[in-house]
Specification:
It is a single chain. This protein is mostly beta strands and 993 residues long. It contains 7 helices and 56 strands. The strands form 11 sheets. It has a 22-stranded antiparallel barrel. Strands 9-10-13-14-11-12 form a 6-stranded mixed sheet. The radius of gyration is 30 Å and the shape is globular.
Length: 993
């Protein structure tokens, strides 16, 4: 008794100091009957698991029902013992975040047939759109080493080759959530995958892509992917693995880099009991080494490129008493790179070296208070340090009043080789300007281009970056089960606190990015000479420098920005006859914290205070009521129908940094102008990159979702699931001109597009019909005050901004003794006028600001300003995906992943967010691909085995083009700037013991 009290006290002390996420567990429920089919009360049920140090026990109720809660995912031996000492044992598997239904007839002669070790996949049986995979599936499917490769396996989720942005499934690629052991892997404030840990430690995968209940604090507008790491077991087990991707076995890359790329991976893992039936451990080491020989691009030989990674992981699983389970883990990963990001037309001197460190500490615990009540807590603390450093350090930072050395522009920064202006002037004055521009551009093309063509850039990488991203999450939840009349209720109460912050230090290398201006400016679609507003008269060159480090910038330390969220979850799962209902809600409070202001008795309520943090926006609980309502009807033993309604208020937002006031003095970019001799003319802070105030009356972004579906089992081997889903999102926040609703009206756009009459008559006709007209009310977003004027950028809720997503899906699972597969066919339509995925400057694969993208910047990008309504970039009408594996009699498996999907949409543009034809009116080619895995297991002796594995990705080398150049004035208009990854082979040898 003293030991139990000491153990519980220590457990309580650990948990009181913790932060947390949802419990990384599953559960088993069911009913026990006798040979006569009547329910049995008082039957003892014991669950012994390979990853659970102490067995879990419970007793059946008067109706024969029982519940084994908070079971770590793994394989279990379940023993049923009746009061008269009759007992039987079956084996089953528990998957992450899934409920396993195991009804049992005590005394049945068929009991020994209930053995489902190795069950690879399960589809959620409630109204959420979820799936789970365990390590048995991951071991036989063609998966790459990185965490991000798991996204390819998700039914109904698009496959993407993008390296930064995530896939879309009804929302932006920055609306997804990525977790390992419940810890958030997303980059704070940005919503992209911060790091991509190796998959060798992953034992279970769970995904939720819609229909979320008010359990787990799911506020993501997109997909939520969660993984559970491997744990120690009741036996000592280990492995040594070597993987190799041989460059000579890789197909030539259509994107132009012809490097011979050998990538080697070494993994060592070991786990087992430290204290029998009480404390288990697991640890691993992982290293990756890219040995890339010098390759070539359009300018010639490239330097050797390296990419090295070391990752350490350790985990303890402890059951101090029968009903308490504690997990503690720590992961440290470091990636160092050299000679990265050399474009196919750029000088090798423009490369970057980089370092990326990722560390995460996780502690979680669960306590089964009694058969009806459980309590969970956990702590997650993450830190990502990312830096990129030019291999060519120019040794100076451009300063106000300095000159640009035209004798050697490659020594001044990253100089972009200019294009010749191919348009014909509307009159003699325009033609003279064009001729003068081309006369200056021609020698630059000859000196810095490629064989006389205007391609690429020379010099050095423009920017020195040194960033740190910090994340911390705290969670507690209480679950209680009780019977009320004819119903059983599962009550869930949870509270979560999340913190995310960024420490940004960014300065320019030399003059940063340098471009030839050549005396051309544009006014209402026409060509004019710079007149000083804002481009100085006589401007021939423009540099873009980081204001921090520029002598007009002021601050020299890092720009610190943060966000804080508190989330409250209440859910009641109600069981009544053949119906299951979920009635619940989330409440959230978000704070966006910037730097550079403090409260004051001024017209804005603030005054400037460099380096001082302030709450720039707070969203209260009353503004974020997120109801979750679901109903499932199990109208037969093998079939059910379900409906779901859910509302989400996503929390991720880059505004903490994008709108921080110190960007005025230390975190934004500054334009520096020079004359034809390189003499300094003037400098001006880039107005769209300054700090911003928030307009009054902003409502948080809201996603509303409806799902109706059906699921059935057929002939023991098949599960078929169909659903229809509809989503609508509104209340988008963006930075825009304070007076944009006043000045960008019908007449304004008529003048701006008049010059496109010959090439795009539909655009001009729409402007003439006043289809491009600012909405009501035609007034400033915010009153002019001591900090902002009429043209200042502010954070506003864009009137009429929306996206919609419709989806029809069919999923089919098949399981037999030797084969399993899951296949999905999805039709979808993603449309609207606010495209977060299409808001970059013609390059989609970026972690762009959320709430401060190029949308609504200046006259271009206003949602009424051109053909902005239409199919969004991530719209892919059709997608088919299938994966599975077959087990041969000679202890080998053949796994596959096959998919086909429509291309993404695009349209011709004149700027990053100004469309010259209806958005999404063009489409890239569809893409199909087959990946294969063959695994051969070779027994050596008791407890030892050898494994050989071959993974072939993109077997038929389908390097389909995507990401076309949309800029109408570019000579490369419509050319594909990216291609699907080429065929590559991964060879693996492993010793397990």
């Amino acid at each position: 008794m003293k030991y139990s009290l000491r153990s519980f006290s220590l457990f309580a002390l650990l948990l009181l100091g913790m932060n947390a996420y949802a419990a990384q567990v599953g559960e088993i429920i069911g009913k026990i009957t006798g040979p006569d089919g009547l329910p049995l009360e008082g039957v003892s049920i014991e669950a012994k698991g390979d990853v659970l140090p102490k067995a879990r026990k419970t007793t059946s109720n008067s109706d024969g029902s029982y519940r084994l809660q908070l079971l770590p995912p793994g394989n279990y031996e379940i023993t049923f013992s009746s009061p008269n000492s009759e007992s039987q044992t079956v084996n089953t598997a528990v998957l992450l975040e899934q409920r396993k239904t195991l009804d049992f007839q005590l005394g049945s002669s068929n009991a020994e047939k209930i053995v489902v070790y190795g069950q690879a996949l399960t589809t959620s049986t409630n109204s959420s759109l979820g799936n789970s995979l365990n390590s048995d599936a991951l071991d036989v499917l063609p998966t790459a080493v990185e965490y991000s490769s798991l996204l390819r396996l998700i039914p109904g989720v698009q496959v993407t080759s993008d390296s930064v942005r995530g896939p879309s499934a009804g929302a932006s690629g920055q609306d997804n959530g990525y977790k390992m052991d419940g810890a958030n892997l997303s980059t704070p404030l940005f919503g992209v995958l911060a790091s991509s840990p190796s998959t060798h430690d992953i034992a279970h995968v769970s995904v939720e892509r819609g229909g979320a209940r008010a359990v787990g604090f799911n506020r993501n507008a997109g997909v939520t992917l969660n993984t559970e790491s491997k744990s120690g077991t009741d036996e000592f087990k280990g492995n040594i693995t070597y993987r190799l991707q041989k460059g000579s076995l890789q197909a030539d890359d259509e994107d132009g880099l012809s490097t011979e790329d050998d990538i080697g991976y070494i993994t060592v893992g070991l786990g087992g009991p430290l204290i029998e039936d009480q404390l288990y451990f697991y640890g691993s080491y992982y290293t990756r080494d890219d040995a890339k020989e010098s390759g070539t691009n359009a300018r010639g030989t490239l330097p050797d490129i390296t990419n090295e990674r070391e990752e350490y992981f350790g985990k303890f699983t402890w059951t101090p008493i029968d009903d308490v389970l504690i997990n503690a883990s720590y992961r440290s990963s470091e990636v160092t790179t050299t000679n990265q990001e050399i474009g196919i037309n750029d000088q090798a001197s423009t490369a970057l070296d980089g370092v990326d460190e990722f560390k995460v500490l996780i502690i979680d615990g669960s306590w089964i208070i009694n058969d009806s009540t459980t309590f969970n807590m956990s702590y997650a603390d993450t830190k990502q340090s990312a830096g990129s450093f030019p291999i060519t350090n120019l040794g100076f930072r451009g300063q106000s009043g300095g000159s640009l050395s035209l004798a050697d522009l490659a020594s001044q920064g990253f100089f972009s080789v200019p294009d010749l202006e191919i348009r014909t002037g509307a009159d003699a004055s325009e033609q003279a300007l064009i001729d003068a521009y081309n006369a200056g551009a021609a020698p630059l093309i000859a000196a810095y281009g490629i064989n006389g063509e205007a391609l690429g850039g020379v010099g050095a990488a423009s920017t020195i970056n040194d960033n740190a991203y910090l994340g911390e999450t705290i969670e507690m939840s209480l679950n209680h089960v009780m019977d009320l009349g004819d119903t059983t209720h599962e009550f869930h109460f949870g509270i979560q606190q999340e913190k995310g912050s960024e420490e940004l230090f960014r300065v320019s290398n030399g003059w940063g990015s340098v471009e030839y201006w050549g005396g051309l400016d544009f006014d209402d679609g026409g060509i004019v000479a710079p007149d000083g507003d804002p481009i100085p008269v006589g401007t021939a060159y423009r540099a873009t420098v980081q204001t921090r480090g520029f002598d007009a910038g002021g601050l020299t330390g890092p720009l610190v920005s943060a966000s804080k969220s508190i989330n409250i979850a209440v859910n009641d799962t109600i069981y009544w006859d053949d119906f299951t209902f979920d009635v619940g809600f989330l409440l959230s409070q978000d704070e966006i914290i910037g730097q550079g202001l403090r409260r004051a008795n001024t017209s804005s309520g603030y005054e400037e205070a460099r380096g001082e943090s302030y709450v720039m926006k707070k969203v209260g609980f009353s503004e974020t009521f997120q109801p979750r309502l679901t109903a499932t009807w199990d109208y037969s033993a093998d079939a059910s129908a379900f409906v779901s309604f859910a509302r989400y208020n996503p929390s991720v937002s880059s505004l903490a940094r994008a709108a921080s006031w110190d960007r005025n003095t230390g975190g934004s970019t500054t334009r520096v102008y020079f004359d034809e001799s390189g003499n300094f003319l003037n400098s001006q802070t880039n107005v769209s990159s300054t700090g911003k105030l928030f307009a009054a009356g902003l409502n948080p972004r809201t996603v509303q979702e409806f799902i109706v579906g059906h699921q059935m089992a057929w002939e023991d081997n098949w599960t078929i699931r169909n659903h229809l889903r509809y989503r609508r999102t509104w209340n988008y926040w963006e930075d825009t001109n304070n007076n944009s609703r006043v000045v960008y009206d019908c007449a304004s756009y008529q003048g701006r597009v008049a010059g496109f009459a010959d090439l795009f008559p539909d655009l001009v006709a729409a402007a003439d019909n006043c289809e491009f007209d600012s909405p009501e009310p035609k007034e400033l977003y915010m009153p002019v005050n001591n900090l902002i004027g009429e043209g200042s950028y502010v954070i506003a809720q864009l009137a009429g901004a929306y996206t919609k997503y419709a989806e029809a899906s069919m999923e089919v699972d098949y399981k037999s003794e030797n084969f399993f597969s899951t296949s999905s066919l999805v039709w979808s339509h993603y449309y609207g006028n606010f495209d977060q995925d299409g808001s970059t400057r013609f390059s989609n694969d970026q972690a762009t600001f959320i709430g401060s993208s190029n949308i609504a910047d200046s006259w271009y990008g206003q949602l009424w300003g051109s053909f902005t309504d239409g199919n969004l970039r991530a719209n892919r009408t059709w997608q088919f995906k299938s994966y599975g594996a077959y087990e041969f009699s000679w202890d080998a498996t053949l796994g596959y992943l096959a998919y086909w999907q429509s291309g993404h949409t695009w349209a011709q543009q004149s700027s990053s967010t100004f469309y010259l034809e209806p958005r999404g009116s063009r489409e890239t080619p569809s893409h199909w691909q087959l990946d294969l895995n063959y695994t051969q297991n070779i027994g050596i002796s008791d407890g030892y085995a050898f494994q050989l594995r071959v993974d072939v990705f993109n077997v038929f080398d389908k390097q389909t083009g995507y990401n076309p150049q949309p800029l109408y004035s570019s000579s490369a208009l419509g050319e594909y700037r990216s291609h699907e990854n080429p065929r590559r082979v991964q060879l693996t040898a492993a010793l397990t013991f």
